[in-house]
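ugh finaly. both done.
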Amino acid sequence: MPASSRFAIAVHVLTLMAEVGDEPVKSDFVASSVNTNPVVIRRILCSLQRASLVTSQTGATGGSRLARAANEITLLEVYRAVEEGRLLSLHRKRPNPRCPVGMSIEGVLNCILSEAEAAFEGVLSEITVNAVLRALRPRSGKREGKRNDAASFSNIKRHQQRAGRCAHGRGRIQR
């Protein structure tokens, strides 16, 4: 079963809006950045609007923009806005209750999956859209903007280092 890309697309959309600033962006423009159909973007925008993460206005001068500052929107809020249900699930059919493993596996897995989901949500709750935007920007000699989300910014760096990600150098969090 393929994994959902709604979260990745939503983070991309919000980060693009943060980069553009107060200017409303049209779904066609966002779709060209994400490299997908504008209909996909409009569906994501509807979910983000229901969660009060973006505001949208129709018409020739319309578009969508962030409802709050990028340093106030956590990735956990984004995840919850666009994804439904649990991150991980148990068997589709109940295991055989006469099997020594099947009779108890669901209880054990429930505990493990709950812990894994709590850890996942903990990481997302510490990272803001603004921290993602900062991670995209090349290192420069001057500081860009306010550092209101310094904790979130350093959390991305810590999580990347722990996971050993971004060995190619792009996407590294730098101070």
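ok and the 2nd:
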Amino acid sequence: MSTIEINPLNTKHRENIIEIITNAFENYPLMKYFFGESHKQSLRHLSQFICEEEPEDDKLQLLGAFVEGDLQGVAHISLPQNEDNNHDVETTPTPLEIKFAEAVGEQALMRIEAYYDLKKANKPSSPHFYINIFAVNPQNQGKGIGTAILSHIHQMSEQYPDSHGVALDTQTEKNAAYYQRFGYNISNTAKLENVNNWFMFRANER
């Protein structure tokens, strides 16, 4: 069995990250909601934005799963932070955000904002890790790569002084059942127009 290593990602992995996220989320309900018929090209713009954004205070991380040196899985996570300091804060768009907005259009931005509002309303109140993006190369799914990524994030949460657990959301019943196998419980369900959303949380075991 091949060894799976989980390591932080950087810009040198950019093209592989974009390829994995784009392929993993092709025809995914949330991406179709965001971008409509142009979701494949717009998904590439979203993946590129994720690769190039520069998070403040190291509160966002990109993790990669490497199998024999090849990147096969990606997770984009938010570390615990004080949510009270993040409400209704007006910030000036960065050049990267402006570029992304121009690429995907106003309607997509409004739908992304509606999703983020729903996500914020359903986050746990206690400090936690949040899995924003979780993608495995479709050609190598079912080989333990996703398990390795989740186990690594769970360990990060266990070792983080203020974290109470890991939260995420998913838009298919199949995915919700998958996460339940790892100890996630459904905290709420909600609809975003015609898209079902499952909000889930796994409490630390320590």
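summary for the 2nd one i guess: The chain has one domain: 4-203.
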